[in-house]
Amino acid sequence: MTPNFRFAVVSDLHIALPHTIWNHPSRFHLVEVSIPAFESVLEHLTQLDLDFLLLPGDLTQHGEPENHTWLQQRLEKLPFPTYVIPGNHDVPVIEADSQSIAFKDFPQYYRKFGYENTEKLYYSCELLPGVKLIALNSNSFDTQKQQIGRLDEEQLQWLEQVLSSVKNELVLVTIHHNIIEHLPNQSRHPMASRYMLENAPVLLEILQRFGVKLVFTGHLHVQDIANFNGIYDITTGSLVSYPHPYRIFEYHQNQYDKSRLQILSYRVESVPEYPNLQEYSRQWMSDRSFPFLVKLMTLPPLNLPTAKAEELAPTLRDFWANIADGDAVFDNPNFPKEVNHYFQKYSAISSSGSPTLVDNNISLLL
């Protein structure tokens, strides 16, 4: 039997020491709270009897050496093991520049957090007796040295070799990019596709063939649980974006070999300089939403005229905050029918029309 165990997931920390913070008028990330928010989470997690912690990428604001160093040193002080993978913000360039570390240097910072072999940006390890972690690197570069989300052939072959050697173990996979759609038409949408792994179908086929059911992702900055043929892609929102969430998981197996994963979601409610963090952060996101909403509505499939999109955008100012919160339901009967129908597709509604509020707190029978 697989042992019962408890672990946490905190995603997209975007750790930024104060002197490294840069500003941009359309930035949704409230990176100013990255360190105090993480400290608040750790204060909670260290009170629990955790077996391990997963950090599925975007550990730093933009791959700054000093931010990687700060996080490395902070993780060393934790009373439980921590396992990390790189996000697109952690390794934004192949060669080091004045701001960011080199792509190949990421493992050097995290030797104690999964990367015993610093020659690869992916690894597998035993978390507990009978429980294996496979940590994948979904960051790659095209021929123009532009970053893309993709698993290369070498890594896919390695993955098959690892999975073929698994004997009576529970396998947990973590990867930064989403492998199952969390948004309507995510893999083909011009704004959302970059959050998907380009060759997700290839990875899904391998995972399904070997009976892997649990995958933990980040990148999208929303609370969502998606399922495809028995595989769950559990994506956790960003610690520096509303609603500043993190998750705690409890795995249970009974004497009949029936297993269950209980998922509980929490939010950072306040930090010293932001005592009303939830309210402030939601307002921050809504106030910056106008350009995003206009772009969303003028692109396919809506293709609205700019003037019409600008007219409707203020009514939708909380749209992305509600998506990020998870379990959202949308209905704007005063909108044009096709526009209302489009946004209803983002709702947590089953095919039968009933609410399916599963994104934050649920118990999954595996």
UniProtKB/TrEMBL annotation:
The keyword Metal-binding applies. Residues 5-222 form the Calcineurin-like phosphoesterase domain. This is Metallophosphoesterase. Keywords: Hydrolase, Iron, Metal-binding. InterPro entries: Calcineurin-like_PHP (IPR004843), CNP_phosphodiesterase-III (IPR050884), Metallo-depent_PP-like (IPR029052), Pesterase_cyn (IPR011239). It comes from Brunnivagina elsteri CCALA 953. One of its GO terms (molecular function) is hydrolase activity. The keyword Metal-binding applies. Belongs to the cyclic nucleotide phosphodiesterase class-III family. Pfam families: Metallophos (PF00149).
